[in-house]
Design a protein that fits this description.
It contains 21 helices and twelve strands. The protein is α/β, with parallel strands linked by helices. Helix 1 crosses helix 2, helix 5 packs antiparallel against helix 7 and helix 13 crosses helix 14. The structure holds adenosine-5'-triphosphate.
Length: about 600
């Protein structure tokens, strides 16, 4: 959870408190005139001076806040309640309800706010009671649209279907299931609308369409001060300052709220690449051995603020050589993806790299500026994901997507890139590549889509390919074909392959070396054949026993679950689930022992296993 934006909260809180407390803090009467002292400067009795009718400026300013904020909050609250209901019903019930609730808002949007205000003021006469409905109507469509868009995005989720299957009624689903999921954006919209309503109220009052004199309002104060600007310029300054400070504080509060309420915290104001951030001081990496494509040392990744101590990856070191596949294997939640993504600088939202280096071609990927990292991604290093269905853009033909990947890094014409795309499709074993290049992703099978992803990844001849469970979504036959394809690519081009999987049979088929990951640590590492034949960590042994085999004993599950970051055991992370655990395992965190050429184990009992 992100920290609350305390400074804007305090600033807005003080402004609201002052406005609420106006009747009880002994202010002068805001409408009492003292014409003898008109335009008098600041004095003990009138700290901010007196206006053109001798009224106390401080009092009018604070009472004006009461008027402006009162109108703005009331209008935003009315718009929020009605708009959210309309969006909820329109988005969930659809049909005529959608037409009435959501499309009618398009009609409101056609009216400029000023025109709408003029219309209503002509009908109802000016005053605060007119301004509230006017502003509520102005802000209604924004709430309806935010709620409607929110409902559309969550209504297809399984948890909504699950409620339907349980027999829950529409009202219950809308209020108990959908509303809490869209409450964040609606709340943010509320603070935005309230801030903007303060400005609009002042503007309308300034134009004589809002609060009626002599009632205090910032807009009226600005309007009146305009006429005496030369004799008493400060009279213009105070309401402008109040308006500016209030709007700045409210906008900062909106930003802060959005940060706190957005479930993808780092996705907010930063671009994808600027999310990448290393908080530890850069370290000069030691030179890697020749032939090393990626050399990772001491990588540590924290979830949220590193000071909170929620480490999802702890002190991980590994390397990938040319023409070699390193498989990262472990149960779900062990940190494989986070570690691999962070190692190539693609740090996901809400996560910080708090230590370590990741060197490729002499550059530390964890310290590279975003622009330089961008140059390497898709060129010197590429990535393929588990679900090609969601990784390919559904509205572009696959050939042009591959061509774009080429043109992002090479100055070639569209025609030349398209020709190369067809060659790449042929190379990854897609039959009739000329025709397939013109297909949209949904026109291809899952296996073909994954081949397209691979073609795109290798389009610029990368030295490192990171494959995050690339075969999990495919059936066994296609899985074998894709693994063969990756193996032949690696053989032919000499690229290094970092392969993330939870499947030991896949590891056996593709990997030269294996790193076994658990709770954000590498527990064992070594050549694949040796790890399979002679595991030297109880977790590796348990994983091997849990893998399905064609012949031999039935798979055994591993009792217990992977600990979550922030709640890791003090000693060996696997100790609570380990049948070989002794007292020391529970108390002391073991180091990674060097147990032979290319082999390492984080078990103090490795020798006796
Ligand atoms: N962006 C994120 N924000 C917060 N926590 C995260 C984030 N990404 C991963 N985590 C947490 O980090 C831990 C490791 O997650 P990760 O996805 O790396 O595991 P994994 O081994 O790849 O699992 P799977 O095989 O299911 O993909 C999990 O506890 C997960 O909840």
């Amino acid at each position: 959870m992100r920290r609350l934006p305390w400074l804007p909260i305090v600033a807005v809180g003080l402004i609201v408190l002052a406005a609420l407390a106006a009747p009880v803090i002994g202010l002068a009467d805001p409408v009492a005139m003292d014409v003898a002292h008109r335009l008098a400067g600041p004095s003990a009795a009138h700290p901010l001076g007196q206006d053109e009718y001798g009224r106390d400026v401080l009092s009018r300013l604070i009472w004006g806040a009461r008027t402006s904020l009162g109108i703005a909050f009331a209008a935003a609250a009315i718009a929020c309640v009605i708009g959210t209901i309309l969006g909820l019903v329109g988005g969930y019930v659809r049909g005529v309800a959608e037409l009435l609730a959501v499309r009618s808002m398009d009609v409101v949007l056609c009216f400029p706010p000023l025109l709408l205000a003029l219309l209503v003021v002509t009908l109802l006469g000016p005053g605060a009671s007119t301004l509230i409905p006017v502003l509520a109507i102005v802000y209604l469509p924004s709430f309806t649209r935010v709620a409607y868009a929110g409902v559309l995005s969550v209504r297809g989720h399984e948890y909504v279907t699950a409620m339907k299957v349980l027999g829950a009624g529409r009202l219950r689903i809308m209020t108990r299931t959908i509303l809490p999921n869209i409450a964040g954006p609606v709340l943010v919209q509320f603070s935005l609308a309230a801030a903007s309503a303060v400005v609009l109220e002042s503007g309308l009052s300034f134009l004589g369409l809002g609060v009626v004199p002599p009632a205090p309002s910032w807009g009226l104060m600005i309007g009146a001060a305009r006429g005496t600007m030369v004799q008493a310029p400060l009279l213009l300054l105070w309401p402008c300052l109040a308006l500016t400070v209030t709007i700045l504080a409210m906008n900062a509060l909106c930003d802060g709220l959005r940060d706190v309420l957005d479930p993808h915290p780092a996705a907010r104001r930063a671009s994808w690449f600027s999310r990448f951030r290393r908080v530890a001081a850069p370290v000069v990496p030691e030179p890697a051995e020749p032939g090393t494509v990626l050399d990772v040392r001491g990588l540590t990744v924290a979830i949220g603020d590193p000071g909170d101590g929620k480490l999802a990856v702890r002190d991980v070191s590994f390397h990938v050589r040319e023409g070699e596949t390193l498989a990262i294997v472990g149960e779900s939640g062990s940190g494989k993806s986070l570690m691999s993504l962070s190692a190539i600088g693609m740090v996901p939202a809400g996560v910080e790299v708090s230590g370590g280096t990741a060197t490729m071609e002499g550059k530390d990927l964890l310290a590279l500026p975003a622009a330089e990292l961008r140059k390497l991604l898709g060129d010197r290093m590429a990535m393929i994901f588990q679900d090609p269905g969601s990784s390919l853009n559904p509205v572009h033909r696959v050939g042009s997507q591959i061509a774009e990947a080429i043109r992002a890094h090479r100055p070639v014409s569209r025609r030349a890139a398209t020709t190369q795309a067809v060659t790449l499709l042929r190379n990854v074993g897609i039959p009739d590549p000329e025709r397939r290049a013109k297909a949209f992703p949904h026109e291809l099978s899952g296996g073909m889509r994954q081949r397209v992803m691979i073609a795109m990844a290798i389009a610029n001849g990368p030295r490192l390919l990171v494959a995050d469970e690339p075969t999990t979504a495919l059936d066994v036959t296609i899985q074998a074909q894709v693994l063969d394809l990756l193996a032949s690519l690696k053989r032919d081009s000499g690229l290094g392959l970092l392969f993330i999987t939870h499947s030991l049979p896949v590891v056996a088929e593709i990997a030269d070396r294996v790193a076994v990951m658990y709770a954000g640590e590498i527990l064992e590492e070594g050549p694949t054949a040796e790890i399979f034949a002679d595991p030297r960590h109880p977790y590796t042994a348990a994983l091997l026993r849990s893998a399905p085999k064609d012949d031999g004993p039935a798979p055994e599950g591993i009792p217990g679950t992977v600990p979550v970051p922030g709640d890791l055991p003090a000693g060996c992370v696997f100790a609570p689930r380990c049948d070989k655990s002794i007292d020391t395992c529970v108390k002391t965190r073991p180091p990674l022992f060097d147990i032979g050429p290319g082999r390492a184990s984080r078990c103090i009992r490795w020798a006796s296993l």
